[in-house]
Amino acid sequence: MKFSEFNIRPEILEAINWMGFEDATPIQDQAIPEIMNNRDLIACAQTGTGKTAAFVIPILDKLAGKEFKGVKTMIIVPTRELAIQLDQQIQGLAYFVPITSKAVYGGGDGSDWDAERKALTSDTGIIVATPGKMIAHLNMGYVNLDSVEYLILDEADKMLDMGFMDDIQKIIKHIPAKRQTLMFSATMPPKIRTLAKEILIDPFEISIAMSKPAEGVLQAAYLTYDNQKTPLINSLIANKPDYNSILVFTSTKSKVNDIVRMMRGKGYPVEGISSDLDQKERNEVLGRFKAKKTRVLVATDVLSRGIDIKDINLVINYDVPGDAEDYVHRVGRTARANTTGIALTLVNEKDMQRFKRIEELIEMEIHKLKVPMELGAGPEWQERSFHRGGRPYHRKKKGSKSHGHRRNK
Question: Residue 405: how many CB atoms within 10 A of its CB?
Fold first, then answer.
């Protein structure tokens, strides 16, 4: 369906066209009419499906042309990166309508507090906030959310995984019960269902094909020992001189500086980004990467759902993510907007079974590669069994009556 077929205000449609969008994605096609009809909504959709515009467009349409007092829309997100990204998208879509938005997040030097306070106590159309920073403002006693009509929880599963359930419930207590509530989540575990029953009223449900990397992503895995990983990355990058935007993910921030240090001196600019940097430093690092001044960015998973940079040629998973869903979000940083990209994962002998769970989640076998001969032999792929409690545990194929069986040798 084309955006022009929705009953959207011409000013918003102009901004959509100006941004180069013409056809709605499946989640936009399903969500926009229901949101415009004032339905509560719960949507299961991964990153890269266009879910942000799916709720921003109808909310802007509702707010445009109206006079209002106080904050009208509260969007709660898990990370500062996602808050910044979402606020930027709102500003783009609201370019031709007088709707203001403000991102409220932690991690800065404190200079943004007054600007956030002003936005929270003014006639602001949309607030995008991380739970912790929003609670900090509420605790000061000057924030009144009685004017909020629209509540949106984005990346709800990530927020619950990060332990924000109590904060979310505290924020919701400050918002009128008479409101429209929208919940977006990449996965739908029982705890999300429980939260949905508590805060949604007769919601319209959407489930977009999830947990599958985009078709344009060429996926492969190298079987490596840990001491081969950095030399392998340097070798891969040296062989791809036309790749000027490369993202390397690691699961722990302690590894970021180590990887950057080992990669420097190879003739290309590389930087690292993690929660150890303050917000100004992180914005500067991201800005250089976005402008192609930095060829390689080493990052933690905090960026896997929040970074919004087009034309990333190559994503490298330095180690296998602990959560199979995080793999989808990591590789989702490449091959965006119908482009193509490559996602490579470095798998050591300890992470083979964890990687197998990723293959089960995305329902495909990822091609396994051996490290170049000059780096020495890597480990052999083992997929028959793994050990629990010192005994072999054998998975049975889907469709078997039992989940597995133990066998004594």
Answer: 10
